[in-house]
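Standup notes
- DV: blocked on the single-chain target, sequence here:
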Amino acid sequence: MTQTFISQTSAATYASVNGLDLYYERSGNPQEGTVPVLLLHGGFGATGMFDSVLTPALNAGREVITVDLQGHGRTADIERPLRCDVMADDVAALIRSLDLPQADVMGYSLGGGVAIQTAIRHPELVRKLVAVSAPFKRNGWYPESLAGMDQMGAHIAPHMLQTAMYEQYARLAPRPDDWAQLWDKMGDLLRQDYDWSVEIAALSMPTMIVVGDADSFAPAHAAEFFALLGGGQRDGGWDRSGVTAHRLAILPGTTHYDIFMSPLLPATVTPFLNEEVRP
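- DV (later): unblocked, structure below
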């Protein structure tokens, strides 16, 4: 049984979940009838990843909860591998510890994989799912992207010490010396094979898939993802009777590395989050 408790200080807010002290932040101006949206960052990121565009836009109408996943940002690593399903259990435990009946869960890249797994493993907690730049199976990535993942490991860490990525990590991490360990664990995670086709086809909550037209995998993969949910299978019709609860968005002129900063992202996602969930 998972035990959780909340501790708050003026500097940070943590939830103790599954042996992990999970850092999170809450912000926003929730309107009546909205549920919180929980944002999950990409690999080597942190809660501030969405601060330039997405979080301020979402804050205007709802509560936003941002999370530092295991080994990222202000959440110290623990003795377990990095895995999307395990981190999804952390996210679910956080939602429960905050006494939230449900949340909209949105993630980018690594966070997108965690968001998908949260919906798969804990569907009762997820009102809507938004997966940004997150393939549903490993071989969806372009070959050159997979080659980079195959080479990732602790040996890369020293070469990244002069980057903004490391500067953020060193500033936020409880143990900055874990930098090489994070690269090692991320490499191990990214080399794991996966295919969530069957589980995604069984999802019932409204789901939005968002990718860039120059992402790290083909737009056709996003269309296949959409089709697994039943989207894009027939003419929507004059009366929209063929329109499903799911959405597919391909953002023009965006890549895997800048989509989370694009003003097109909140403009695309907000209407989906604001739509009433149909029975």
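- Follow-up: Confidence is low (pLDDT under 50) at residues 1-11.
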